[in-house]
């Protein structure tokens, strides 16, 4: 094989993968937005077949040979092609290490498990979910055996991060955040009842348009839709969609979901043209992606300068609801820290403890130290220990998240890592430039510019660990703990 | 090969084709509805690759062998499988008769031609479009040579219909309709100015919801969206989407587009479960599809009993706009027959003459009797001859339709055939049952029931000609001419 020929094949393979991804994304987008209610079956048939075709395309022996050939010639490749070959070779090895029949069996299991989980959650009946979860765990234990087991749990979502790294991270959080939360528990809570006045969806939609503008999201390349659960979906760096959900009795839900998803969108839209239609397009890892969404949502969006900057305009969108509220009151309300049961509704401070519970349980499940039947008890015990609250039932307990039913073990830590990365980025950003002057005028262009240069533009051109190093320096979870301690000490007068 | 094995492969092949179709449909739907404005490029890349993959899948030699094997064993197959093998074998032969390089070249040409046509139309500059159209015609002449040339022009859209069949059809129309239009030209036209009062989009949306209900379209399986040009898109018999466009200065546009697309949707939703995810799913031909949309739109939707049935409710949706209008006035206004320039805006009577012009030109182009450079003159001469009007420019003349730029030669006659089939269906329906009693009460369930049994349920299980025979009897264009003559003689007092 000539090198040029191999590179042409490499480009073609990646464009095909892009096309399959775009097809599946489009069907997913449709299914969660405008599709008629009773149409999931036919979409499921199409999605299943496309996934199978994509798997067949990528797992073919010729692909392995092509990638090996390119890897042998890696010294003759430019960075772009070397990284493509490296990434694809790793994915290929990961995919083909799992025997095809096990892969298909697992795909069918995760498909079935989603339905079972939904029914179990509705009924709050863990026993209904238990047999499926046992199978899922058994598969993941077996899969872990095909890789380096110390890295397996997170390998898929956060390459370069292993159990030792996470243990240290969560130990720091446990040590620093748990006492902070207990101290806040002694203090008086701010009034946040005005967040739950009636905020008509139509006014919230207009407010979202304004937030998109503040975030600098170009509507010709990024639209906002409505779904039950907010998400960001990227086709390429010219075509990103975010969604939100309007709760008429809670203005902060859609507000912060738009800023959060907007952060994901900024990342995707900021990725360089060079890597489009290749495996390097798209954010480099879940953790880095969450660092961006949480940067906009929490570090900027829940900062005092930002709230003060946009609050007067917000009062124009909601004059009746917010006329008797000050920016200071609003700032305190959206930063109220209080242990709660549901991860997705948790505040910035307590959120990472929800993740810690899940991380502990996943680690023990995959290492075989915890039996699936004991998950509810362990869950409830850890919620008491970390968050100081009693879990009344499994629906609001260990059945609340969809992740395990989809086979996503090891996904949760990325959420918390993202927050920690973000805190380090902010520290570096503050060293490099005046962050808060422009933000206090509602101008996020400098913030976005910094993130664009340090994170966004690379896409997958750098390894996740190198993007983190580039924007954060050496990973140091105490920076995140310092940030939280400072912010919440001020807020609660500790 | 065992027969069972072959049947399993047949099912798998068709499910894959379904998945590719669903993927492309979903991307198309997205692109025409919610996608951000400047995102066509990435979608184009995905659509092009998916089309290529689908082509590769279906044109593989193993598919030819499989289909030949099944055809050899056709006596052992049930009707469902025999028809699948027959249909796919025909498509396979049609596809593989064209050399792969010519097929790809043609695909790229039609892709490019769309843009060129749009620019040419904007500028009203036929010369800009001419070189591309010449290439398209040359390809189609060459392709026709690969088939039976007397059937080639329509073969793709209306199997069983050949040039002799169409010549007779259009000769009848020319003989009967042209004089009728000239006679109407001498008569006074009804006032239809009230159709162009201001009708807010929001009220039109609610009116569309009502029309969907009248049509008996189950919203759990069929939604209505908004696009520049209305269309119907089917994923399967449980998932169909229609779109419309709300012109605030013209209430009849969206009203009749909803009824028209609703007719297409009724067809798709009425197809039997047996043929889903096979090549027999979906309407059997363009002509039969148009027979259904036009049946609902014109034969029912523009009938006096239907207008009288829904007009009181319509006045509730548009109280200010329609308070001084009677059902009789409304009926006359939506049936105003007047030669005009634009096909898509033409009335029921003059519409088929627009088609006749295009048919004449296509026939002469493909037979080599007309040079592309002479299309505008021929177009203008025929519009004068059939419709009695002068074409002021090519934008409103031979550049108005997108069909040729997409390589769709021979598509137009299906529109007119559909109307003619519909008239014969109505005649048979009136013989079988009381059509107008229920319609005059706004109840279309019996009409839909008849069409469901005679047309819808079969999908592609019968040949197009057999569906036509089943619902119409022997094709007889004089029935359509009789219908038009009777309706318009009454309307205009001839």
Distance between the termini of chain A: 68 Å
CATH-assigned fold name of the largest domain in chain A: Neurolysin, domain 3
- Portion in strands of chain A: under 5%
Oligomer: homodimer
User: What is the total number of structural domains of chain A?
Assistant: 2
Question: How would you sum up the global shape of chain A?
Answer: globular
- CATH architecture assignment name of the largest domain in chain A: Orthogonal Bundle
The CATH class designation of the largest domain in chain A is Mainly Alpha
Please tag this protein with its features.
494 residues; homodimer; mainly alpha; Neurolysin, domain 3; 2 domains; three-stranded mixed sheet; 21 helices; globular
What does this structure look like?
The structure is a homodimer of 494-residue chains. In chain A, α1 (3-32) crosses α3, α3 (61-72) packs antiparallel against α4 and α6 (126-146) packs across α7. The longest helix of chain A has 30 residues, at 3-32. Chain A is mainly alpha-helical. In chain A, a hairpin with a 2-residue loop joins β2 and β3 (239-244). Chain A is globular, with a radius of gyration of 23 Å. Chain A is built from 21 helices and 3 strands. The first copy, chain A, has helices at residues 3-32, 40-59, 61-72, 79-97, 100-123, 126-146, 149-155, 163-185, 201-215, 251-269, 286-300, 304-317, 319-322, 327-333, 351-366, 375-387, 412-432, 436-440, 445-454, 464-472, 477-492, and strands at residues 222-226, 232-236, 239-244. The A-B interface holds A 15-16, 18-19, 22-24, 26-27, 29-30, 33-39, 41-43, 45-50, 53, 219-223, 225, 235-236, 238-239, 241, 276-277 and B 15-16, 18-19, 22-24, 26-27, 29-30, 33-39, 41-43, 45-47, 49-50, 53, 219-223, 225, 235-236, 238-239, 241, 276-277.
């Amino acid at each position: 094989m000539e090198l040029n020929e191999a590179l042409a094949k490499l480009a073609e393979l990646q464009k095909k993968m892009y096309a399959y991804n775009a097809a599946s994304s489009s069907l997913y987008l449709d299914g969660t937005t405008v599709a008629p209610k009773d149409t999931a079956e036919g979409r499921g048939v199409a999605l299943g077949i496309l996934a199978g075709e994509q798997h067949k395309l990528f797992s073919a022996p010729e692909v392995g040979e092509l990638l090996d050939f390119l890897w042998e010639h890696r010294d003759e490749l430019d960075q772009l092609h070397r990284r493509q070959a490296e990434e694809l070779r790793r994915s290929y090895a990961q995919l083909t290490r799992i025997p095809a029949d096990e892969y298909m069996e697992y795909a069918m299991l995760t498909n079935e498990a989603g339905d079972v989980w939904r029914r179990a959650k509705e009924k709050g009946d863990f026993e209904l979910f238990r047999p499926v979860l046992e199978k899922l765990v058994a598969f993941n234990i077996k899969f872990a055996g095909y890789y380096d087991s110390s890295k397996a749990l997170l390998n898929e979502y956060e390459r370069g991060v292993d159990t030792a790294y996470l243990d240290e991270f969560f130990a720091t959080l446990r040590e620093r955040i748990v006492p902070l939360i207990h101290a806040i528990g002694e203090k008086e809570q701010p009034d946040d009842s005005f967040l739950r006045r009636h905020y008509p969806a139509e006014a919230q939609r207009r407010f979202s348009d304004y937030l998109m503008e503040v975030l600098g999201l170009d509507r010709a390349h990024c639209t906002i839709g409505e779904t039950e659960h907010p998400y960001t979906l990227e086709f390429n760096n010219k075509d990103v969609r975010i969604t939100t959900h309007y709760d008429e009795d809670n203005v902060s839900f859609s507000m912060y979901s738009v800023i959060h998803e907007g952060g994901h969108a900024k990342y995707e839209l900021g990725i360089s043209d060079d890597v489009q239609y290749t495996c390097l397009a798209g954010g480099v890892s879940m953790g880095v992606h969450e660092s961006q969404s949480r940067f906009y949502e929490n570090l900027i969006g829940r900062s005092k300068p930002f709230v003060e900057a946009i609050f007067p305009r917000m009062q124009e969108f909601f004059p009746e609801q917010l006329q008797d509220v000050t920016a200071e009151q609003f700032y305190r309300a959206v930063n109220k820290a209080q242990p709660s049961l549901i991860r997705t509704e948790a505040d910035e401070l307590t959120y990472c403890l929800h993740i810690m519970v899940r991380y502990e349980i996943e680690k023990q499940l995959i290492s075989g130290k915890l039996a699936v039947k004991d998950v509810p008890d362990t869950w409830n015990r850890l919620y008491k220990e970390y968050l100081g609250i009693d879990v009344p039932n499994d629906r609001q307990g260990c059945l609340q998240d969809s992740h395990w039913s989809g086979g996503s073990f090891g996904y949760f830590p990325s959420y918390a890592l993202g927050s920690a990365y973000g805190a380090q980025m902010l520290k570096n950003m503050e060293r490099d430039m005046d962050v808060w002057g422009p933000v206090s005028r509602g101008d996020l262009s400098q913030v976005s510019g910094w993130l664009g240069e340090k994170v966004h533009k690379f896409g997958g051109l750098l390894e996740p660990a190198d993007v983190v190093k580039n924007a954060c320096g050496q990973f140091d979870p105490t920076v995140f703990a310092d940030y939280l301690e400072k912010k919440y000490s001020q807020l609660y007068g500790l």
